[in-house]
Write a structure and sequence with these properties.
Length: about 425
């Protein structure tokens, strides 16, 4: 196995690892670049992202727009995004024959709507650049050498010793603190990991009979906390999901962890209204459409099943018309529209797209090159860092950017 100083190794066969390995090999063809993946699967997160379509990035004209979507790492990502932003990602893939399209919400996907297009592009680019990919192989021991470089004791399919001049760690986030012990042993501090991007479990949900109902624009907030987010919500058989919930979980990841995922989520189904304007609107509707049956004529574009459920829970019986509606059930309906209370009793990982907040502390990293300030020649990229974005392509963009910068810097031997 190659053990010269003109060898570099990348740990992790995901988005950041591949981008780093490709960038390094393309920047310096004289280097021997190894990519080591401990499992038999490469780019597994890329393949499942976006329901198998791969949400590659998010349409953003400037780095300043991009950083608004990172609960952790926003300030530190400004400089990296100036060097490699979302538009650079689009150009990178287009140069290799993969065109991306932008959906109305800003998410960007390959025009094929297939994550395999992205995975194959990365595999082809790596092989074309001469990256040597070793699966089922990982270091059991990493030893920084006195004169620079690292000795890796490899286990698995390609067991043996490898000496490298530079090393990129792109092993992704981990849910448990002890899984970062090997990075602490290398001299790095770890921000404790907690889950991000998850849905709310509501076993006693007043909406439990409505799985599959979605509303495109609601406000979700956590009672007693400064946590709220607006966007689409999906009612599920276990609770609530959808972009508004996922993004709220990202911004509130640490606080929700402190609360033990026990809280009350309050849903405002009509966020453009407050109590006064909503009451005024219903008064006008009642005057103009008093003979309409309340439960069978949904307002505000809300789904029929949801409207009926809210009305019935407010005590509005079938066949009651607006001009017959007593004050008490109307007040309860107003409260339900503005503040449906959901007792949250846990969380569920969103599909298979597990994201953690936490990881290697960014103060210990040179964000221009992604090199460790503690250990010369050691680089980091992707979710192993204390960086995480909300759903919408932002975590991949951070992976592409940090991987690219690390790879380019490693190529400068």
């Amino acid at each position: 196995m190659n053990t010269t100083n003109s060898t570099v190794a990348v740990l992790g066969g995901g988005a950041a690892g591949f981008f780093g390995a490709i960038a390094c090999a393309e920047a310096n063809p004289d280097l021997t670049v190894y990519l080591l993946e401990k499992t038999s699967k490469l780019l597994s997160k890329v393949r499942i992202s976006g329901g198998g379509r791969c949400n590659v990035t998010h349409a953003a004209d400037t780095p300043a727009q991009l950083v608004l979507h990172y609960p952790r790492g926003a300030k530190q990502l400004k400089e990296p995004f100036r060097q490699f932003d979302a538009q650079a990602t689009v150009r990178w893939f287009e140069k290799r024959g993969v065109r991306l399209k932008t959906e109305p919400d800003g998410r960007m996907f390959p025009v094929t709507d297939s994550s395999e297009t992205i995975a194959q592009c990365l595999l082809d680019a790596a092989r074309q650049a001469g990256v040597r990919i070793l699966t089922q192989t990982s270091p059991d021991q990493i030893e920084p050498l006195p004169d620079g470089g690292f000795r890796l004791q490899l286990v698995g399919a390609h067991a043996g010793e490898m000496t490298v001049g530079k090393l990129l760690i792109a092993t992704g986030g981990a849910p448990k603190s002890e899984q970062y012990a090997w990075l602490r042993a290398l001299g790095h501090s770890i921000q404790e990991p907690v889950p991000s991007l998850f849905t709310f479990n509501v076993p006693e949900s007043p909406l439990r009979e409505l799985p599959g109902v979605s509303v495109p624009h609601v406000r979700v907030r956590v009672a007693g906390e400064k946590l709220e987010y607006e966007g689409p919500v999906l009612v599920t058989h276990w609770g609530v999901s959808g972009p508004a919930v996922l993004k709220l979980s990202a911004w509130g990841a640490r606080r929700l962890h402190e609360l033990g995922y026990q809280s009350t989520a309050l849903i405002n189904w009509v966020p453009e209204y407050n109590e006064d304007t909503l009451r005024h609107h219903l008064r006008e509707f009642r005057e103009q459409h008093g003979k309409k049956v309340v439960t069978s004529n949904p307002l505000f574009g809300l789904p029929q099943r949801l409207w009926r459920t809210l009305a019935e829970q407010a005590g509005v019986t079938d066949e009651v018309r607006w001009n017959e509606l007593p004050a008490k059930p109307q007040n309860k309906l107003i409260e339900a529209l503005l503040n449906t209370a959901l007792p949250v009793r846990g969380k569920t990982t969103y599909k298979d797209e597990f994201v953690t907040c936490g990881g290697v502390m960014l103060g210990e990293i040179n964000m221009k090159t992604m090199e460790s300030r503690r250990v010369p020649g050691l680089y980091f990229a992707g979710e192993v860092l204390d960086i995480d974005g909300i759903t919408g392509g932002f975590n991949f963009q951070a992976a592409w950017t940090t991987g690219y910068l690390a790879g380019r810097a490693m190529g400068e031997m």
